[in-house]
Specification:
alpha/beta, 7 helices, rod-shaped, about 375 residues, 2 domains, 5-stranded parallel sheet, 26 strands
Length: about 375
């Protein structure tokens, strides 16, 4: 008997079922571990107000591969283990939910204070614990866990100030970490998407793409597409910050940064359109300036094209402002021309004319590059999935 006479549970696989309406361990104190590997009960399992203290590496509440047909409740429980996990529930199956309101759980070590690896929670997972601590490892490890209902996890459980988003300055509480690779849930509660994003960016020991994508999928399913895009943008920022080698060689890493600044990795394609408009305006302004720069008497860097029969000392004819602006547009068109250059163009026989022409080539190359990126972004060809 590992609990107390008030608890009746099947201990040998699922060959026996609990005969009571709900299995309870309430207001009871143990000074040794609760070991119930493979426990199986068709009813609820409550350990409300229980006080459990372990003293060894595996002296904790152990429920790996257990099956609970109802709810598993640790409300107001106090579980402490200074040398190992406090709750080991890897592979746990709780068909009607997991509840830890106002619990105090303190563990130690790299295995984590609360372990829920591969767990399946049929209802809600409600984890608003009053205190969760680990002096030398992660607080919560729900890798590959599946939650069928809402995931209720207040940010203050990990980050005392409930901070939001990703910060270049980091987080003062970044030593309080969680691991959540493979965790799936349909919705979040008691935490905003920005607070959850902060936990992923600053309170996970290593970068994993799946938690970001899971959060983005949750926001997308709720109809918040803009939030989902912001999450995926932050994912790319975190990828470059923590695992730049995953992007490839130095050239690929260098491209990643300006691509993020210009187009937000394809998730903010309208920024590329704005950049296109700015470069287009610069091109027109450059041509307009060239029409007012004197190269030699009676000639400008951009002017009317003279007939082939004109003499060398024939004075040049200035282009109108509209023609000069049209020249800038014509020079920047990726495909086709407006025909303006047949009667107004840069005079490449002069130094200033060659300088303006070279500058225009540079703007034209940039314009074409931005146009290509904009098309790729709108067609989702360059969004990074990982």
């Amino acid at each position: 008997m590992f609990f107390a006479t008030r608890m009746t549970v099947g201990m040998e696989g699922c060959s026996r079922r609990a005969s009571t309406q709900a299995d309870r361990a309430k207001s009871i104190s143990w000074k040794t571990a609760v070991k119930a590997d493979g426990l199986c009960t068709g009813n609820n399992l409550f350990m409300q107000d229980a006080v459990i203290a372990g003293t060894g590496k595996f002296d904790e509440v152990r429920l790996p591969d257990s099956q609970i047909g109802g709810q598993f409740g640790l409300e107001r429980a106090t579980i402490t283990n200074p040398t190992g996990p406090a709750l080991d529930a890897d592979g746990l199956r709780a068909d009607n939910g997991l509840f830890m309101e106002d619990a105090t759980i303190t563990g130690a070590g790299e295995l984590g204070a609360i372990r829920l690896i591969g767990a399946h929670i049929g209802g809600q997972a409600v984890l608003p614990v009053s205190k969760l601590g680990n002096s030398s490892g992660p607080l919560l490890v729900p890798n590959d866990a599946q939650i069928a209902g809402a995931f209720v996890f207040p940010p203050a459980v990990v980050c005392s100030a409930s901070r939001e988003g990703m910060s270049r300055l980091g987080c003062p509480d970044s030593n309080r970490t969680i691991k959540a690779h493979g965790l799936t849930y349909p919705s979040l509660s008691a935490i905003s998407w920005r607070q959850r994003l902060h936990l992923l960016a600053h309170h996970t020991p290593t970068y994993w793409p799946q938690p970001f994508q899971q959060l983005a999928a949750t926001e997308h399913a709720a109809g918040h597409d803009n939030n989902a895009r912001e999450i995926l943008i932050t994912q790319q920022h975190d990828l470059r910050r923590r695992t730049p080698h995953a992007l490839g060689n130095r050239l690929a890493q260098w491209r990643h940064a300006p691509w993020g600044s210009l187009g937000r990795y394809g998730y903010r394609a309208h920024r590329l359109v704005t950049a296109l408009a700015v470069v287009r305006a610069l091109g027109s302004g450059l041509s307009l300036l060239a029409g007012h720069v004197t190269t030699h008497p009676d000639h400008h860097a951009a002017e009317r094209v003279q007939p082939t029969t004109a003499k060398l000392d024939t004075p040049g004819t200035p282009c109108s402002p509209v023609e000069l602006i049209g020249l800038g547009i014509d020079r920047g068109l990726p495909l086709g021309t407006t025909g303006i250059r047949t009667h107004c163009d840069f005079d490449i026989t002069t130094g200033w004319g060659q300088t303006f022409t070279a500058a225009r080539w540079g703007l034209q190359a940039l314009l074409w590059s931005l146009a290509t990126l904009a098309i790729a972004a709108y067609t989702c060809l360059v969004r990074k999935p990982s």
